[in-house]
UniProtKB/TrEMBL annotation:
It comes from the Eukaryota. It comes from Candolleomyces aberdarensis. This is Uncharacterized protein.
Length: 33
């Protein structure tokens, strides 16, 4: 049970990181420097 919970946490963390990266990339593309 603990293993699956840790696995879900890891998947969630990866998903959040991907979302943040996508937001950053979209912001950069929207406002090129």
């Amino acid at each position: 049970m603990a293993d699956s919970t840790a696995e879900l946490d890891e998947i969630h963390n990866i998903y959040v990181q991907n979302s943040l990266m996508r937001a950053l990339l979209e912001d950069v593309l929207r406002h090129p420097h």
